[in-house]
Write a structure and sequence with these properties.
- By secondary structure, the chain is mainly beta.
- 5% of the residues lie in helices and 54% in strands.
- It contains 1 helix and 16 strands.
- The chain has one helix at residues 2-12; strands at 21-23, 26-27, 32-37, 45-52, 58-65, 72-77, 84-92, 95-104, 109-112, 116-117, 122-130, 133-139, 142-150, 153-160, 172-181, 184-195.
- A 5-stranded mixed sheet has the order 2-8-7-4-5, with no helix packed on it.
- β12 (133-139) and β13 (142-150) form a beta hairpin.
- The N and C termini lie far apart (120 Å).
């Protein structure tokens, strides 16, 4: 009987729980993260839930297929929920396989020291709140700063207004900041900026009498 019970435990419950890691571990609602782990039933569909650590409320958060060797790797998109502490749960056929914690910050804001300017103007940018990661500033979808490693909080830096865009100069563009961590965009924000035509150097003539 003991041998039978030991074999039954080995078949039904002796396997180790699957591992799960969410990258990055700090993100924002609605963002894409990477889910990876191992020890999952081979080639099975893995369903994800985002569970509020305080209320226990769960929200479906996508699905992935485990590989033939039981490894799990892929991107899932988090639902738009209230910022706070959560757990990402991975289930197979309704049975919990793996779980990990994740912190969701409020969506960050991007502010500029000037709302308009000609090529060559130095503009200060503030982007936050964000977690640790690499920050890149885009001007009209082209990088003008970064990526710069940031420890978290508020990112502050300056960039120079380029002279090659938009074409022609004088139009409105978007300045966008992105914070990347764990191979995913963890936070992003944008704000408009009005480009101005280049300013010609003025020649001032002084007449002496």
């Amino acid at each position: 009987i003991r041998l039978f019970l030991a074999l039954l435990m080995l078949v039904c419950g002796g396997a180790q729980a699957a591992t799960l890691e969410a990258l990055p571990g700090t993100s924002m609602p609605g963002s894409a993260i990477i889910a990876r782990g191992e020890g999952y039933p081979r080639s099975e569909l893995v369903e994800f839930l985002l569970v509020d650590a305080v209320t226990g409320t769960s929200t479906p958060s996508g699905e992935l297929f485990a590989a033939d060797d039981g490894r799990l790797f892929g991107r899932i998109t988090l639902p738009t929920v209230t910022p706070g502490s959560y757990r990402v749960q991975a289930l197979v056929r309704g049975v919990l396989q793996g779980s990990t914690s994740i912190e969701l910050l409020p969506p960050p804001a991007l502010s500029l020291s000037a709302a308009e300017g000609p090529p060559g103007r130095l503009v200060d940018a503030t982007f936050g709140p964000i977690a640790a990661g690499r920050v890149t500033i885009y001007y009209d979808d082209v990088p003008v700063l970064g990526p710069v490693l940031q420890s978290g909080g508020s990112f502050r830096a300056s960039f120079v207004v380029p002279a090659d865009r938009p074409d022609p100069l004088g139009g409105s563009v978007q300045v966008r900041a992105e914070q990347a961590a764990g191979g995913s965009i963890a936070a992003t924000a944008s704000t408009p900026f009005q480009s101005l035509p280049e300013v010609d150097d003025e020649i001032v003539l002084t007449t002496f009498s």
